[in-house]
Write a structure and sequence with these properties.
This protein is α/β, with parallel strands linked by helices and 239 residues long. Helices cover 31% and strands 26% of the residues. The chain has nine helices and twelve strands. It has helices spanning 10-15, 25-31, 50-63, 79-87, 105-112, 126-129, 133-142, 163-171, 199-204, and strands at 38-44, 68-72, 97-100, 120-124, 147-153, 174-179, 182-187, 195-196, 211-214, 217-222, 225-228, 231-235. The strands form two sheets. The protein has an eight-stranded mixed beta sheet, sandwiched between helices. It has a four-stranded antiparallel beta sheet with strand order 9-10-11-12, with no helix packed on it. The longest helix has 14 residues, at 50-63. The N and C termini lie far apart (62 Å).
Length: 239
């Protein structure tokens, strides 16, 4: 069998089909219209809205017609994840979303090799998966038609925790930091507008508390507003 062609002219590249997630509204303003393959990473401290954001994202992608699975390695199928599903009305996408638990990497791969397996795989969390960067690259090579969204813990500097998470962050096409019930995406597809995950939680966060860092940008709280290089980004407290 001839090997797959890996050389393209500029015209061939321009004409190459790309399957995109047709994001609209606040999701498009948040991260543009991304491809539905490859890898993304989401990170943040505990109790800052990370799980809530991931469920909102999974629900929206499922509403667009993609099959989604959430691999719940930390919370399993316990009361905490059941409550989070109920609060985010996940039953509305019951036919396109599933929760996987009590699985290791080999189990996940075996499920993904099956016909009609999910298109989008959300792994929560990367640290519980115990995969190194070589394993990450192998996973992408083995399943080039999937979109993997890795959820990561954050270290004390609010960066993805551990060397594997750091390396995936540099490789990922979409990088999402969650803090104080708001999310900010660094996406190669556009967007850039901050998203409020939970209005009540964001409003209750104490003024002056918290810090954002994204690549070489630093966002800090000043008088109830997020600022970057003395430019106002968005009101911290929404009416």
């Amino acid at each position: 069998m001839p090997s797959k062609k890996r050389k393209l002219s500029p015209r061939e590249l321009a004409n190459q089909h790309q399957s995109l997630l047709p994001f609209e509204g606040q999701w498009e303003r948040f991260m543009g219209r991304p491809e539905d393959t490859g890898a993304w990473i989401v990170w943040g401290q505990s109790f800052n809205g990370k799980t809530r954001f991931v469920l909102q994202l999974a629900k929206y992608i499922a509403e667009l017609g993609r099959k989604v699975c959430i691999v719940s390695l930390e919370e399993g199928n316990g009361q905490s994840i059941r409550r989070a599903f109920a609060e985010n009305c996940m039953e509305s996408v019951n036919h396109r979303l599933s929760l996987w638990y009590d699985m290791d990497l080999d189990d996940i791969k075996a499920e993904l090799r099956k016909q009609r397996s999910p298109k989008v795989v959300i792994i929560d969390s990367l640290q519980y998966l115990g995969m190194n960067y070589a394993g990450y690259k192998q996973l992408k090579r083995e399943f080039p038609g999937k979109l993997f969204i890795f959820v990561s813990h954050a270290n004390s500097a609010n960066e993805p925790k551990g060397s594997t998470a750091e390396q995936i962050r540099y490789d990922a096409m979409v990088k999402i930091q969650v803090s104080l019930f708001r999310a900010k995406a660094n996406s190669r597809y556009g967007g850039g507008e901050m998203m409020t995950i939970w209005d009540e939680g964001a409003m209750r966060a104490p003024a002056g508390d918290g810090q954002w860092t994204m690549d070489n940008e630093q966002w800090t709280m000043d008088n109830g507003q997020w600022t970057m290089d003395n430019e106002q980004l968005t009101n911290y407290r929404e009416k």
